[in-house]
C-alpha cells in the first residue's frame, strides 16, 4: 500500500472516530435529560464550572479567581473552561464536561450572545444549572426557558457609558472633540455602553463632538492601531478618547504617548483594571485618565456561580423569583482620581475570599459593592 | 515504388525563422511578465494612494506616512520569513503563537511592572532563542516525521499561545518599564521609524539569503521540484529546517517589537497578524505551490494591505462598511495586478 493511501485511510478513520465521539457526546447529553424534575442536587455531587472567554486578560483571570474563591469556601471541585476566544471551543468544551455525567453548577462569560441558547439547552438536558454573564440575545429570557437557566447577570452598560461621558465632559469643561473605541461591534455589552455615553453627551454636554467611532474588538493591539490611524487623521483636534474597556484603553494610551499627545488628551473607560489604578495613582500623562467604572471579575463569577448553586441545592426556586432576579443588573461605581482610594481594598490580596464570605452571608443580590440595582428585561435608555 | 522526391535527397537549409521569432516572443513575454507583475501591484498601490489622498488631505502627510511605515514594519519582518517558507511550497501558521511566546518571554525578562531588574540584551537572546526552538520543532517535525507543515505549524501556533499564557499566569499585564525602549518602535531616526529601519535590514538580509546563499537557492529548487532537488544531491532536509527556523526567529522578533509598541505584554500580542502576512505574500505573487515569487513582491503586498486599512479609516468609510469595502478593493486590486499571470498563480484551485 502506498504511503498516501495509508494516510488517506488514517485520515478517514480519525474522521470517523471524531464523528462517533461527537455522536456519543450527544447521546450522553440527551441521556441526562429530565434534569428539571430531578429536584435538588446533593452538595457532594456538584462540580462548579467557570467558563471564560480567554485567560490572557485581567478581567477573565479575575473571573477564575472568584470561582476559585467560591469553590474553596464551599469546598467543591472546580473546572475552568478557556474558550480561547471561540464560541465553538467554548461550546465543545462545555459539552465535553457535561458528557462526563457530573451535576454541574456553571458560570459562563459567553463569547457571543448567540452562544447562550446552545449552552443553556445543553446544561438543561444534562440537569445542571447555569448563570450567564454579560451576553445573551435580548429576547432569550431565563423565565421563558427553564429553572436550569437560573439567571442572566451583568453590570449595566448604559450607566457605565454615562459615567465615562460625565468624566470626559467635566474634564474638558463641556467643550471638545472625542473619539470612541467600542468593543466588538455586535456585542450588547459594548453597544449599551456606547448608547449610554452618547446619550449623556447629548443631554448634558452638547459642546462635545464625537469625531469618530472605531470598533476595536476588545483587542489592545487593534485599539493601538486604530488610535494611531485616528491620530494621523485628526491630529491635535482630539481632546478625549473613550474606550469600551481598559484593555483597549491601554493600547490607545500608548499610541497617544508615542505621538507626544498624551498630556493634552483625556481618557475614560470601563473596568478600572489594576494596571489602570497604578496609572491613575501616578498621574500618568498629566492625569490623562479622568474616569473609570469599578467592577471586578471575581465578583461577577462568584455572584453567578453562587446564584446557580443556590438553585441547584434547592435553596432558591428560580421560577418563584421576580424577573429582576433572573435578568439582573448589578451596581457599578463611577471612579475618578478623587475617589480612587475607596476601591483599593477590593484589590488587596484575599479580597476575593473576603467578598465570597460576604456573598454567602448576604446572598447574591445584596453584597456590596455589587448589589442588585435593576433588571427584569433588556437594558433600555432611561 | 513511387519515384522519390528529388528535393528530399539533398540537404536543405531549413527555415528556422518562424521558430526563432516564436522563441523571441516567449522570451519577450517572460521578460515583460517579470516586470509587469510587480508593476501591476505597484500601480494598484499608487491608485489607492491617489484615491485616499483625494478623500482626505491628511492621508498624504509626513505624519501619516510615518504612521503607515510603523504599522507595516512588524508585518514586513514576519512576511520575509513567511515568503521563504512559502517559496519552499510549505506554510507557517505558527506566527501568532511564536509572537506571543517570544513577546511574553522578552517582557518578563526585561524591566517590567511585575518586578525584576531585567536582563537587558540577554532578554532578546533568550526570547529569540525560544522562537528558534519553535522554528526548529516546526522544521524537524515537518521534515523528519513528514507531517504536513500546515498541521505541524497549526499545532505549534497553539503550543506557542499556551506557552505564552502559562508565562502570563494570572497576574496583571506586565508593563514595559525600560524608559529607553518605551515608544522605541515609532521613534524616528533620519525621518523613518526605528521599527521600519529594522524591517529594511531584515528585508535586505532576506534578499541576500535568497539571491546569494545556498539556503535561498536550494529553497527555490525544493519549491520547484523537491524530487529533482533531492536527485541533484541538494541538502533538502537541512535547508527546510533552516527556513522554518529563520521564519520563527523573525516571528519572535515581530512579537518583541509588537510588545514594545503596545507597551504591555500579552499572549495575544500577535492577534490578526497571520491574516495580514500570508495574504500579503500571496498578493505579492509568491505562489502557494512554491518555487516562484520573492521578498520584494511581498513588501508590495504588505504595503497594499497596510495602506488599505489606514486609508479606509482616514477616508471616513463607515465602520460597519469597512471590512466589506476593504475586501472588495482588495479583490479588485489583485485581479488588476495579477491579470497578466492569472494562469500561473497556482492557487486558483
Automatic annotation (TrEMBL), chain A:
GO cellular component terms, semicolon-separated = cell envelope
Q: CDD domains attached here? A: PBP1_ABC_sugar_binding-like
Q: Where in the cell is it found?
A: Cell envelope
Q: Give the InterPro entries listed for this entry.
A: Peripla_BP_I, SBP_2_dom
Does this entry carry the keyword Zinc? no
* UniProt domain Periplasmic binding protein: residue ranges: 52-302
Q: Which UniProt keywords apply?
A: Signal
Please list which residues make up the signal peptide: 1-31
Stored Gene3D superfamilies = 3.40.50.2300
GO MF term set: carbohydrate binding
- Family that this chain belongs to: Belongs to the bacterial solute-binding protein 2 family.
Q: Which PANTHER family match?
A: D-ALLOSE-BINDING PERIPLASMIC PROTEIN-RELATED (PTHR46847:SF1)
Listed name of the protein: Ribose transport system substrate-binding protein
- According to its UniProt entry, this protein's organism is Microcella alkalica
The organism's taxonomy opens as: Bacteria, Bacillati, Actinomycetota, Actinomycetes, Micrococcales
UniProtKB/TrEMBL annotation, chain B:
Q: Which residues form a coiled coil?
A: none
Q: Which domain of life is it from?
A: Bacteria
State the organism named in the record.
Microcella alkalica
Subcellular location, in the record's words? Cell membrane
MF-aspect GO terms: transmembrane transporter activity
Stated membrane topology is: Multi-pass membrane protein
User: Can you cite an annotated GO cellular component?
Assistant: plasma membrane
- This protein is called Ribose transport system permease protein
